[in-house]
Each structure stands twice: as C-alpha cells, then as structure tokens.
Amino acid sequence: MRAVVLDEDDTVGVKGASSRGICYAQKSLEIFERLGIYERIRAKGITWSVGRTFSGADEVYTFNLQDDSASEQPPFINLQQFYLEWFLVDRILELGASDLRWKSRVTKVEHESDAVVVEVETPAGRYALEAEWFIDATGANSRIRDAMGLEVNPSRSTDRWCITDVRFKTPFPTQRWTWVDAPFNEGRAVWQHLMADDVWRLDYQMAEDCDPEAISRPEVAGERLRAQLGPDVEFEFVWIGPYQYRDHLLETFRVGRTLFIGDSAHVVSPFGARGGNNGIQDAANLGWKLALVLAGEAEDGLLDSYHVERFAAAEENLTVCRRTARFLAPRSRAEHRIRRAVCTLARHHEFARRLANTGRMAQANAYPPSPWAPGGARSMQNVAFDGTTLMRCLAGGTRFLGLAVGADAATLVRLDEEAALLPIDFRRVDPASPLALHLGAAAGSVVIVRPDAYVAAVLPEARPEAVEAAMRAALGLDARTPLPLEPA
Ligand SMILES: Cc1cc2nc3c(=O)[nH]c(=O)nc-3n(C[C@H](O)[C@H](O)[C@H](O)COP(=O)(O)OP(=O)(O)OC[C@H]3O[C@@H](n4cnc5c(N)ncnc54)[C@H](O)[C@@H]3O)c2cc1C
Known about the structure:
alpha+beta, Alpha-Beta Plaits, 14 helices, binds flavin-adenine dinucleotide
C-alpha cells in the first residue's frame, strides 16, 4: 500500500526525554515478525516473562507469562521506544512503498466527498496534499482531532511518579519487580525493569503534593536509589523524569475518510503497557482493511469494523488500567484497608493473588460479535507448523488463511479453486499438531484467519459455500455483490 507519512519532527523518540514506552507485548512482537523487524528487536531488547510482586518486605506472588504461551515470540521484550521507532523507520525506507516526509506538520484537514485535503507546513513553505484516506496518528494531543470538534472525555490523575533510568555496576535478574507499598519508598509503589544497553527503569510513586522539580533533582533521585539498594550502590543516571498520567477515549475512531489510531484515539495509564502496544494493534487491524478497500477487494463499510473492534479494545483497556491505577492509589481508608487485606491474603492464598493488581499486562483483546465477525473474533498466537509459522503465512499482509484441519489434497484443491476470487490461501494442518491444539479445531473443520491473525470463523466442514459466506461477512460484502469488485 503506497502512503505518504508526515511527521512534524525529524527524530525518533521525544526530544529532550528518554524512552516513553519500554515493554512490548507478544501480539506486538508477532506483528513485528510479520513486518520483518522482530529479529532486530529481539537482538537489541531484553526478553522477559517472570514478574515478581512484593508488599512491604515480603514477596506476595510470582508469575511466569511463558507458561501459557504457544507462540514463537516471547510474552514480552523490553526495549526503549526510540529504538523501536528507529527500526520501523528503517524498514519503511527499506520497503520503499512509503514517502516519508520529516518536518512536515499537518495544519488543516478538509473532507471532500471522495478525498481528504491535507495542508502541510514545512520549513520550505506550505502545500496541500490530496489523499483518498487520512490516518491521524499524531498522538495524545492531536490538534487534528480537536479541530474536528471530537470529544475524548479526558481525565487526569492526581497520582505522581518519577522515572529514574539508570545503569548499575552490579547486574540484577532480568525480571519485572513491582512493589505495591515499598518500605524504602515511604510505603508507595515502585517498578523495576531492565531495558537495552543495561539501562534499568526504576519508576517510583511519589506523594501527590510533591514538587516535580524537587523530586527529580539527581541528589534526591540518588537518595531514593540508596534507600532501595543500599548506601554503597554504584550507578550512573541516564534520565530522570517526573510525570502524571491521564487517560481519554475518542468517541469514534472513524469520521468519513479520516481514521484515528494510537494515542490520538485512546490514552491509558502506563500500568500494564497497554498504550503503545494497542496503537500497534490498531495499525495491524486497520492496515489490511484499508489495503483491501483500496485494492477493491472489500467495500469501504469494512472500515467501520475498525472502529467497532478497536474502540471495544480501547474501552476494555481503559477499564483494566483504571482498576490498576485505583489499586495503586487508593482513594479512601476503606480502599487502603481492602488493599492491605488483599496483600496479606495473597501471600498464602491463590484467589487473593488475582486481586493484587500491579498491572494486567497487555494482551490481544478479543473482539465482540459484529456483522463482520458474527461470533466475535479472537487473536491467534504465532504457532509454528509445517516448517513455517502462522505469521510467515500472513506476511503478505492482505490475504486470509484457511487452515483446513486434517484435509486431504483433493479437498485443498477444491477449496482453492472455489475461492479463487477471494483473498484467501488454504493450508493443511495436522490434527495432532500444536497448531490444531491451539485452534481447538476438530479434524475436518476449516479455521479462517484474518491477515491480523484473528480468527474470522470456524467452519465445522470444508464446504466452499460456507468459506465464501464467511469471507463475505469478514470483508463486509453483500451476498449479492459480484466478485471480483472494481478497484476503488
Ligand atoms: C512514562 C511512559 C511509559 C510508557 N510505557 C509504555 C510501555 O511500556 N509500553 C507501551 O506499549 N506503551 C507505553 N507508553 C505509551 C506509549 O509511549 C504511547 O502510547 C505511544 O507513544 C503512542 O504512540 P502514537 O504513535 O500514537 O503517538 P506518539 O508516539 O505521540 O507519536 C505522535 C507522532 O505524531 C507527530 N505529530 C504530532 N502532531 C503532528 C502534526 N500536526 N503533523 C505531523 N506530525 C505530527 C509527532 O512528531 C510524533 O512523531 C508509555 C508512555 C509513557 C508516558
């Protein structure tokens, strides 16, 4: 898909700051595998799956996210966001289909019936650009969204934090450690994570009435480190940054030919790494739909499913993150008491561990039933099969996959022939393979997987008419629409 990418800046990351995002979840890593940058991320980043939670001086519980995973990608890799952006930019340039324009600020967006006219300001002057579709990915403070008068219902926390990115002489284990109420931080929460280049991110919850300038002075941050790690700890600062978080949710992710993705559409508190990871999933959800609409293989109504699915995901993430924020910053004595009870019980009882909420780590959200996915849609992991993986089979980016469990060669040929006008490829899956187990599909069935690795339909039998009906629903095509469609 050819695109013009406009950025008002000419750097990766945020000027004057260190990394914002650090944790990239399995679904994002699988998307990066499909985009061809996963190996670079794995080589540079820190792979982890074990998280340990402490309350006071005691360990409350440990989790290992690897235990439930069938994917070729690990549950998480930590990497500074500017590396990720850098690798993506390199890949965009390598693929050569997009025209990447730095120092190009979008100042105005006007909608015409069949196009969007975008005004662009550059150091060399202004110009107008006409596009069939426009994606606003300009982040939390999108002026484009605001100029269109769209409501995001923002809320700002009173909870304050201070990030200290630091290098130590002595290494710690590569695990995510969180304290609900650390004795060395006046009974407030602390996070500890390793990123690339041996940089640790320590994130300290601060008093709500603290002075941001005072808490981020190096001598004050150094005192916090010594309180946590002992008076002799040797370290060097990489970056210190105080912050407060906010959240918002845009009411609609599609307005005519403009689509909103990432922080422009939704912002959540940082607990659980649901911010950037969900922007990446927005892009994966929208990309194939837009490409098929542009290629004339789907009608533009399919883009409404982008709002339906990703809005539902954003709403769920907002709820999950707000619960965590409330657990970490109780608002009343009753909430404090409940939290103390949860932490005490969690030391001994499994059920209470599920209530000790230091962040529900980002996952691929399931989508609700809709005209495009009558049974809802769930994400599949990148399982290896037949010398390849699911993501490698989906690498083209716009073709569906029909996984025919236990099908014989004649059935595959028949399916291929009958579905020749639809964007779908068929593969046989061994009924005894890990993939069939992951799909939960019986021999004889066909599982239709979308280009974003979500299951569009599970058909109990390999019948071409059922495949066509399921594909028409997934593409938003009427039963009477002749195939193939005219390109848009
Ligand atoms: C402390 C902190 C920790 C975080 N940790 C994590 C984490 O571990 N994992 C995670 O997944 N997420 C994390 N996040 C969230 C993550 O950083 C954001 O969700 C993510 O950066 C959003 O990406 P985006 O592309 O939507 O917006 P941005 O990254 O804000 O990018 C917006 C882009 O638009 C450009 N732009 C803006 N206006 C214009 C204009 N008018 N014209 C042209 N270009 C424009 C900007 O230059 C910029 O390049 C964290 C955030 C914070 C603050």
